[in-house]
Design goal:
Rossmann fold; 59% helix; 13% strand; 5 strands; 125 residues; single chain; 7 helices; three-stranded parallel beta sheet; alpha/beta
Length: 125
């Protein structure tokens, strides 16, 4: 399973359901986009370290941005930005999930529901 950025934010806020969701998955992934968003939102080096340690302790695998993911994300932006306000970051996260044939867990279902080939697991905090 691949996790959207919001799930990590819920976990960092102490949401037990988010932490349990991580714990029950054997293979845990995140896109490089999510990784960068998590680091970008850190306010200092201590929070950077906390984020990196958290990902390591749960054995998360960061999936790279490939040419195919970039191409698919650009198609999603072209197809869905005007009609559904799909942003570039969400397009990259969705494309990463689709290209790796993984389900995306997110509490922001409305961001992704227009992408028909994307398998979504709704998360309700």
């Amino acid at each position: 399973m691949i996790f959207d950025t919001d799930i990590f934010i819920w976990a960092q806020r102490g949401n037990e359901k988010a932490v349990r969701l991580f714990e029950k998955e054997e293979e845990k992934h995140l896109s490089i986009q999510t990784y960068m968003e998590l680091l970008q939102n850190a306010k200092n080096k201590t929070q950077h370290k906390y984020t990196k340690d958290f990902l390591t302790s749960f054995d998360f695998i960061v999936l790279p941005l490939t040419e195919n993911i970039g191409h698919r994300a650009s198609i999603y932006v072209e197809e869905y930005t005007l009609s559904s306000s799909l942003g570039a970051a969400d397009a990259i996260i969705a494309a990463t999930a689709v290209e790796n044939n993984m389900t995306l867990a997110s509490s922001n279902i409305k961001h992704f529901r227009v992408i028909k080939e994307l398998q979504l697991k709704p998360f309700k905090p």
